[in-house]
Design a protein that fits this description.
The complex is a heterotrimer. Chain A has three helices and no strands. By secondary structure, chain A is an all-alpha fold. Chain A is elongated, with a radius of gyration of 18 Å. By secondary structure, chain B is mainly α. Chain B has two domains: 75 residues; 191 residues, no CATH class. The longest helix of chain B is centred in the first third of the chain and has 26 residues. Chain B is globular, with a radius of gyration of 23 Å. Chain C folds into two domains: 134 residues; 412 residues, no CATH class. Classes of the chains: A mainly alpha, B mainly alpha, C mainly alpha. Chains in contact: A-B, A-C, B-C. Chains A and B meet through helix 1, helix 2 and helix 3 of A and helix 1, helix 2, helix 3, helix 4 and helix 5 of B.
Chain lengths: 105, 313, 548
């Protein structure tokens, strides 16, 4: 088992925190989506660090998390795509992508 | 020495990620995000995950970044939300504090992970010979956890259906997205003509070797999709119409073929998605070939968007 | 065992049908959907018979691989009950939506009918996957399938407001998903598996278990819209077409709730504490009170029904502390769990019926303003009866699924000495009765001038059928129904009438009600709601640590 370089464990945790801050604070949905992607990549990096810890000769890492990560990255991309298309259609139909209900913002 | 490299990459990642989240201007943030995506690939190589590095570079950095920049460009002029004020200082301090608490909890958990590390690598190695593939990640994706991959194929088609559902009613039956214009002699058209054939070959290669070396259908399909998008953005081709039968058939053929092979496994080998002895590698290759068109089409068309033009009659 | 092989089938048939319905397009979409629903319901019935009647727990190892490397599908009696109940609701929605989502004659293929049926089938398949999967990552994929199926249902009519509601739902739900996934990452890192049974054996209280549980729970609560994380639900469920609202309220929400149950009762059973369960139920109780009062202040019927969903979601979380034994040390599979599952099924059937009734009223009158509902009872007796029956079913006073569920949970409250939740359970009926009486009073008012457009008889009967099914659930459990509780009924109806009078009519002058209204407006803004999400994540973590 390989000793984990702590950098790839603590920094992803910090990225999760930074991304969560962005999700809460930005009024613009597109910025929230970028922050969501930052959180996602932080969580994925954590999983990658877990995979690296699980290395067993001759493998350099535990393949199960790596496989799950590939699935996760594709699913997260599809989610982002759906959200982006929603944002663009909302913009086309109302000129305002803000999440607050109209008339209450 | 290597640890200094890791530290450098990690800290730069944090700086770029923070910039992508907190920059004032959305385009600056997106440029930061794309740089972040590129650096992530390097981080993944340091973590010895080449399959994930390929997927992250292609999908996480490449396609996501392109999609976000295209969206930001469309929104630039009129979006009222861009002019909305940020929450007050109290809310922002609270958000920062709570985010820091969550991040610390995660960091503390990771620091508390038990040694020796819990891992499934030995079990994977022990069970892999039955599947006759050389790439352990492929063995997990299409062997031990094939159900997850099948469901993922369904997820991507469902996402495309969701994107298409956003079309205006009068545009149903029309071609997807908007017609792209580019200078016929310009740089974009030139790049599309030169790069696309090369990219297609590389994409097919990455797909093919995925059974035994890092690579596979996700990474290969992303490359093919990206090449098609390049050609589309250059105006050299147009997206299909939403009601084309061949399009629908190719989209569902992948997951349905996967299900059919699963049922075949249930009949011949006793369990859904089991492989009869000796047929594992051929069946895995068939599944990968069947899923390629589906994945390529979804990854490309989900960026093109819903049908926005009226049907041509 | 032949019945075990039904488990992958019950997941794959809806998805296969969704793909084929989408590919064939045009007139074939609805037809394929009906064929799929018939097949899937038959499979669900077989699973129910094998599990409920014969009492076996079905287990299936996909591909022949065993956990921790492979994936297992399991179905005990409760999962089988959920599968069967959801199948009944899907049948009802399919009949109800027959005319609204049939292809129009003029064109070969229209958008909404093509998209609705595959989405409905995908939601069904994802729910079945959530009920049978024994792996936390597969459950993550199931949750994403539910979100991808539910979000387009919200904005199916294409108006800007529904697009906005769908975007809010999508972003909040995705935030929840990524929190859930982060929890899974930590669990794998510590225990080397994501199989629920194996985790149940390996998990020990500690930082990793607490952080994982708290992040997963917070994320799942965001997807289930438990107070105060409910910002996305009222506009999303109220803005969708009636059949879609029924699917969203009755079905989609149950998926993330069921995953919470699996995480707390099975995977993290050694780590969850009495204190943290009290936090969950406190949120549930707050949801019941807050959402019922806010429902009474709504001018529109569909919004009232949406807030009613929020209140009923609160009930689904009362079961957690009640599952602890008398010493509060271990969570058990007992009366509280059965009561919770029965409550979920009662809510699914009754709420689908209620949304269908509201949709029929809207289609008939052209509006759904509660103040102008006069004359509806005379003009649409079946629909009014449906609304009344589903409301009474939800109140849980007459023998119905909710009544038996409440009895089971009251038994658990007595057994563990948590009398305060008994009070909430008994008092909650009054809150439910409040908004039901409020609507029925308006609908029963005579008005000879009301003009009513005709609605499909099949849709009315489908709605009525689901409302009656909610009553028939009373016979689903093995608990004896017991004597009719006159006292409880009087309290509920009387309390409800009082609430209806004071809150609906004079509400703005009552200080508590005004507070609820302000709270609702505040919590439905993104910043406060997302702050609460992070706050809850922290609160659960503290409650989990404090309990040890």
């Amino acid at each position: 088992m390989t000793a984990l370089p702590l950098w790839f464990a603590l920094v992803p945790a910090a990225l999760i925190g930074v991304g969560l801050y962005g999700i809460v604070v930005h009024p613009q949905p597109l910025r929230k989506l970028v922050s969501f992607n930052v959180v996602g990549s932080g969580a994925f990096l954590l999983f990658g660090a877990v995979a690296r810890r699980g290395a067993a000769v001759p493998l350099n890492g535990d393949p199960v998390p790596q496989a799950l990560l590939i699935t996760g990255i594709v699913v997260a991309f599809c989610a982002s795509a759906l959200a982006v298309m929603l944002i663009l259609q909302l913009h086309d139909r109302s000129g305002d992508t803000s999440l607050e209900p109209a008339g209450e913002a | 020495m290597i640890d200094a490299l890791n530290a450098g990459i990690a800290l730069l990642l944090l700086a770029l990620g923070a910039y992508a989240v907190m920059a004032k201007d959305v385009f600056a943030a997106l440029v930061g995000y794309i740089a972040y995506g590129l650096l992530l690939t390097l981080a993944w190589m340091q973590l010895r995950g080449p399959d994930v590095a390929l997927t992250e570079a292609a999908i996480g950095g490449g396609l996501t970044g392109a999609m976000l920049i295209a969206a930001a460009t469309r929104l630039r002029d009129r979006d009222a939300a861009a002019r909305a004020p940020m929450p007050g200082i109290g809310a922002r301090v609270l958000a920062a504090t709570l985010s820091a608490v969550v991040a610390s909890a995660v960091a503390w958990s990771v620091a508390s992970l038990p040694e020796p590390a819990a891992t499934l690598a030995p079990q994977t190695l022990a069970a892999m010979p039955a599947l006759e593939v050389g790439n352990p990640v492929t063995a997990v994706l299409l062997g031990f956890r094939a159900l997850d991959t099948l469901l993922e194929a369904i997820v991507v088609v469902l996402a495309l259906i969701g994107v298409w559902s956003l079309a205006p009613d009068k545009a149903w039956g029309g071609r997807l997205g908007r017609l792209q214009h580019a200078q016929p002699d310009g740089m974009l058209a030139y790049a599309a003509r030169i790069l696309a054939p090369i990219g297609i070959v590389i994409g097919m290669y990455i797909f093919w070797i995925g059974a035994d070396l890092p690579g596979g259908k996700f990474q290969g399909a992303t490359l093919l999709a990206a090449m098609w998008l390049l050609v589309w953005m250059a105006g050299l081709t147009d997206a299909p119409a939403v009601d084309r039968r061949w399009l629908r058939a190719m989209l569902v053929a992948g997951p349905l073929a996967f299900v059919a092979i699963g049922v075949f496994g249930a009949v011949q080998a006793g369990a859904f998605l089991a492989y009869p002895a000796g047929l594992a590698k051929p069946l895995i290759i068939v599944i990968e070939i069947a899923l390629m068109p589906t994945l390529t089409l979804v990854l490309a068309l989900v960026l093109v968007g819903p049908p926005l033009r009226e049907p041509e009659r | 065992m032949a019945a075990d092989a039904l488990l992958p089938a019950v997941v794959m048939v809806p998805f296969g049908g969704a793909l084929i319905a989408f590919a064939l397009g045009g007139r074939w979409t609805r037809l394929t959907a009906y064929a799929t629903i018939a097949t899937g319901t038959a499979i669900a019935a077989c699973i129910a018979r094998a599990s409920l009647a014969d009492g076996q727990t079905l287990v299936y190892h996909v591909g022949g691989w065993h956990p921790p490397l492979g994936l297992a599908l399991t179905a005990n009696a409760l999962a089988a009950a959920m599968i069967a109940g959801v199948a009944v609701v899907v049948c009802g929605i399919a009949v109800f939506a027959h005319r609204d989502f049939g292809q129009p004659h003029a064109v070969r293929e229209a958008r909404a009918p093509l998209v609705f049926w595959p989405l409905l089938l995908a939601v069904w398949g994802a729910l079945d996957l959530a009920f049978v999967s024994n792996d936390l990552f597969t459950l993550y994929v199931a949750l994403e399938l539910l979100t991808f199926g539910g979000v387009p249902l919200v904005c199916l009519d294409g108006r800007a407001e529904t697009l906005r509601a769908a975007l809010r739902y999508a972003l909040f739900a995705l935030t929840g998903s990524i929190l859930y996934l982060a929890g899974c990452v930590m669990l794998y890192g510590a225990y080397g598996t994501l199989d629920i049974t194996l985790l149940g054996a390996r998990v020990r209280p500690g930082v990793v278990a607490w952080t994982a549980t708290t992040m997963m729970t917070a994320g799942l609560l965001a997807k289930t819209a438990l107070f105060p994380l409910h910002l996305w639900l009222p506009p999303a469920h109220a803005g969708a077409p009636a059949a879609a609202s029924a699917a969203l309220s009755a079905l989609v929400i149950k998926g993330s709730w069921f995953v919470v149950v699996r995480v707390w009762y099975d995977a993290m059973a050694s780590a969850v504490t009495f204190a943290s369960a009290q936090v969950l139920a406190a949120l549930g109780a707050a949801a019941i009170v807050f959402a019922s009062v806010t429902a009474l202040r709504q001018p529109r019927l569909k919004l009232l029904v949406a807030y009613s969903t929020l209140a009923q979601i609160g009930y689904l979380f009362l079961m957690f502390p009640l599952a602890f034994d008398a010493t509060g040390s271990a969570i058990m599979h007992g009366a509280a769990l059965q009561g919770g599952v029965l409550q979920a099924l009662s809510h699914a059937t009754a709420k689908a019926a209620m949304f269908m009734a509201a949709g029929l009223v809207y289609a008939a009158l052209g509006h759904d303003r509660i103040a102008d509902l006069g004359g509806v009872a005379r003009a649409m007796p079946v629909t009014t009866a449906t609304f009344a029956l589903s409301g009474i079913a939800l109140m849980g006073v007459l023998p119905s699924g909710a009544y038996v569920a409440k009895k089971l949970m009251l038994d658990a409250a007595d057994a563990s000495g948590q009398w305060w939740w008994g009070v909430v359970l008994k008092g909650g009926a009054a809150f439910t009765a409040g908004y039901v009486i409020h609507v029925l009073y308006r609908a029963l008012r005579p008005n000879t001038n009301v003009s009513v457009a005709p609605v499909p008889r099949a849709s009315e009967l489908a709605a009525l059928g689901l409302a009656i099914a909610s009553f028939l659930l009373a016979f689903a459990g093995t608990t004896a129904i017991g004597t009719f509780d006159l006292g409880g009924t009087l309290v509920a109806v009387g309390g409800g009438a009082l609430l209806a009078i004071f809150v609906a009519s004079k509400g703005s002058r009552v200080p508590g009600v005004a507070l609820c209204g302000d709270l609702d407006r505040a919590l439905r803004r993104w910043t406060p709601a997302s702050l609460f999400l992070l706050l809850l994540a922290t609160a659960f973590g503290v409650a989990l640590k404090a309990g040890h």
